[in-house]
Specification:
By secondary structure, this protein is α+β, with helices and mostly antiparallel strands. It folds into four domains: about 325 residues, 2-Layer Sandwich (Nucleotidyltransferase, domain 5), CATH 3.30.420; about 80 residues, Alpha-Beta Complex (Actin, Chain A, domain 4), CATH 3.90.640; about 110 residues, Substrate Binding Domain Of DNAk, Chain A, domain 1 (Sandwich); about 90 residues, Substrate Binding Domain Of Dnak, Chain:A, Domain 2 (Up-down Bundle), CATH 1.20.1270.10. It is built from 16 helices and 26 strands. Strands 1, 2, 3, 4, 11 and 12 form a six-stranded mixed sheet that branches. Helix 13 runs antiparallel to helix 14 and helix 14 runs antiparallel to helix 15. The longest helix has about 30 residues. The radius of gyration is 30 Å and the shape is globular. About 40% of the residues are buried. The protein binds adenosine monophosphate. Adenosine monophosphate binds next to helix 6 and helix 7. The site of adenosine monophosphate has 17 residues, from helix 6 and helix 7.
Length: about 650
């Protein structure tokens, strides 16, 4: 589709948000549907920040993104990656990075860093701004395809430590791409904005005039930690003000280090089996394959406790196949990753120390312990923050559960889009609301929803409820979080799900699972589940109203009124079916064991009542409308009453069984 110019009369000009990253870039928008990354069907949301030049030096063809990245190894001298490391820097400034860049960097005017590309007919010298402009142009085109309108303005993010020259270079890159960069925003500020931190919504609520936010950004190759001070908006409708108190990091620390440590482990073990040369480095393709295996295993271990590696090393001298197979546990990976995470945590200490001086000047914290206590929110950015170890260490260090509801790869772009929508004056009421717009609950067995927080509850809000298992020996329980006014999960909106695993096998109904819902002042919902006896815990975060427009909220509310009666009946039947099945199973088991001890008449009556209830259950499972909940309730009651004698016999027998 060719983009058409912005419609005259459109109330707000579109301002997109762009995260121009070292390895990947994204474009996002925040409109009445909430903030979202713009994608083209069939393409990934991330555009690799890789640019290849080919053809004549005078007018080369420029290829951006996936294709450039995929063939970077094939064209090392004409594919430019990590150009962000060169933006606005002199050759001398960038010298520390040069060893890691496969292409040729030369000195240009005013000692600036330039790239020399060997193309047909000679070298072409390009500036980092031009290379970044190609990436920005690709993102602009993507946004125009996704939105169907011309996009002329953008908010672009940069690291908090970028100096004026680096910011100016970023702005120039935008101009070269035909984009008016209306604002340059610090990446940590954008991450905080993505969570709605600092968006003033209710002047009456007792908000602190000042709060402190830590943004922990661990990607593939770099780590940044920033401490921001947020000064609340002076009046409703105005935006709060973020100030970077300190920013520090390590430009050579990230998920890649963990991959390399895993590769070292695989290599050592392959050498022990004499499947690799004892001293020589593995061939580049073997190394690449090992790195790929390492990264896959690492990703799987973010969700699972254990993952298998299987590498076919090919046939050996005696033509026997050599398959390296190994299972890696989460704790093994944690041990391998610990030294790198330790380095990140030491940076955090430094950042806090630096921030303490700033906070101290304003009469607040005076040392890093006090600064740590002053942190009100921690936001995670970067793919490596998906690692459970990273989340745990960050939570321990700051004494706070970090925000994880949004995709850590997208947070910065989403925040830039939020800033864009604020600047364009587009509606922002849809982004985050002062009250919970729709009820929030957990799906229970049978598909009904137990509501924990009701619609229109003011935020922050908290609620807990106890649940249990429905099957004997159940060792894991699925918790699905739903939003909506209807009674059945299928009619609500699934916000997210997680599993509480590792429960010791117990009879149904015995585990005590406390589910806690917590919506903080920024509208971020955290759901936790704890099994009381074992202390096993799992949790998830979601942004409850993310992506819902005011109209959708209204529609869901209207539907709930229209279906209220039906929904109530259905919910009741569903719960009755679940409980009746548990009773029927219990009675069936006990009858098989102790039935002989009952009087014949009693036993026949019990069996008759059980059959009557079972018929109702089966009918309700086929069609919930086919049974009357009151009748089913009566049938269940009658069966419960008739089973009293059986219960007594069962208890006596089990006590006898325990006698020495
Ligand atoms: P970024 O630079 O933010 O794109 O982050 C890339 C890094 O995140 C790479 O090292 C990835 O291996 C890592 N990463 C992405 N997804 C996961 C995951 N599920 N678990 C662990 N690391 C991940």
């Amino acid at each position: 589709m060719t983009p058409s110019p912005a419609q005259p009369g459109t109330p707000h000009e579109i301002i997109v948000g762009i995260d121009l990253g070292t390895t990947n870039s994204l474009v996002a928008i925040a409109d009445e549907s909430g903030p979202r990354v713009l994608t083209i069907p069939g393409e990934r949301p991330l555009v690799p920040s890789a640019v290849r030049y080919e053809g004549p030096a005078g007018s080369p063809r420029v290829i951006v993104g996936d294709d450039a990245k995929a063939r970077a190894v094939q064209f090392p001298l004409t594919t430019i990656t990590s150009v962000k490391r060169l933006m606005g820097r002199s050759l001398a400034d960038a010298s520390g990075d040069l060893a890691y860049l496969p292409y040729t960097v030369v000195e240009g005017e005013h000692r600036t860093a330039r790239v020399a590309l060997p193309l047909d007919g000679g070298d072409r010298i390009v500036s980092p701004q031009e290379v970044s402009a190609s990436i920005l142009a690709a993102l602009k085109a993507r946004a125009e395809r996704a939105l169907g309108v011309e996009v002329r303005k953008a908010v672009v993010t940069v690291p908090a430590y970028f100096d004026d020259a680096q910011r100016q270079a970023t702005r120039d890159a935008g101009r070269l791409a035909g984009l008016d960069v209306v604002r340059i925003v610090n990446e940590p500020t954008a991450a905080a904005l993505a969570y709605g931190i600092g968006l003033d919504r209710d002047a009456n609520r007792n908000r602190k005039p000042e709060s402190v936010v830590a943004v922990f950004d661990l990607g593939g190759g770099t780590f940044d930690i920033s401490i921001l001070r947020l000064t609340a908006a002076p009046s409703p409708g105005e935006t709060a003000f973020f100030q970077v108190l300190s920013t520090t990091g390590d430009t050579r620390l990230g998920g890649d280090d963990i991959d390399h440590a895993l590769v070292a482990l695989f290599t050592r073990e392959l050498r022990e089996r004499a499947w690799l040369h004892p001293t020589a480095e593995p061939a580049p393709d073997v190394r690449r394959a090992l790195k790929q295996f390492a990264e896959e295993v690492k990703h799987r271990l973010s969700d699972a406790d254990q993952a298998k590696v299987r590498i076919d090393v090919g046939a050996g001298g005696d033509a026997a196949s050599r398959v390296y197979e190994r299972s890696i546990t989460r704790s093994e990976l944690d041990a391998i990753s610990a030294p790198f995470i330790d380095r990140a945590m030491r940076c955090c200490e430094r950042a806090l120390g630096d921030a303490a001086r700033e906070l101290g000047q304003s009469g607040g914290a005076t040392d890093d312990v006090a600064a740590r206590a002053a942190i009100d929110a921690v936001v995670l950015v970067g793919g490596s923050t998906r690692m459970p170890l990273v989340r745990r260490r960050v939570a321990e260090f700051f004494g706070l559960e970090p925000y994880t509801a949004l995709d850590p790869d997208q947070v910065v772009a989403l925040g830039a889009a939020v800033q864009g929508s604020l600047l364009s004056g587009a509606a922002r009421g849809s982004l985050l609301l002062d009250v919970v717009p729709l009820s929030l609950g957990i799906e229970t067995v049978g598909g009904a929803v137990a509501k924990l927080i009701l619609r229109n509850s003011p935020v922050p809000a908290r609620a807990t409820e106890m649940f249990s298992t429905s099957v004997d020996g159940q060792t894991s329980i699925r918790l699905a979080v739903h939003q909506g006014e209807r009674e059945m999960a299928a009619d609500c909106r699934l916000l997210g799900e997680f599993h509480l695993r590792g429960l010791p096998p117990m009879p149904a109904g015995i585990p005590q699972i406390e589910v806690e819902f917590l919506v903080d002042a920024n509208g971020v919902l955290r759901v936790g589940a704890t099994e009381r006896r074992t202390g096993k815990r799992a949790s998830i975060q979601v942004v409850p109203n993310h992506g819902l427009t005011r109209d959708e909220v209204d529609r869901m509310e209207r539907e709930s009124f229209a279906h209220a009666r039906d929904d109530m009946v259905r919910h009741r039947v569903t719960d009755l079916v679940v409980n009746a099945k548990m009773d029927l199973k219990w009675i069936g088991d006990r009858l098989a064991k102790h039935g002989a001890a009952l009087e014949t008449g009693q036993r026949a009556e019990l069996e008759r009542l059980a059959t009557e209830l079972r018929v109702m259950v089966e009918s309700a499972e086929r069609d919930w409308k086919s049974v009357q909940p009151d009748a089913m309730h009566r049938a269940k009651d009658a069966l419960d009453r008739a089973s009293v004698r059986l219960q007594e016999i069962s208890i006596t027998e089990s006590l006898r069984g325990q006698e020495p």
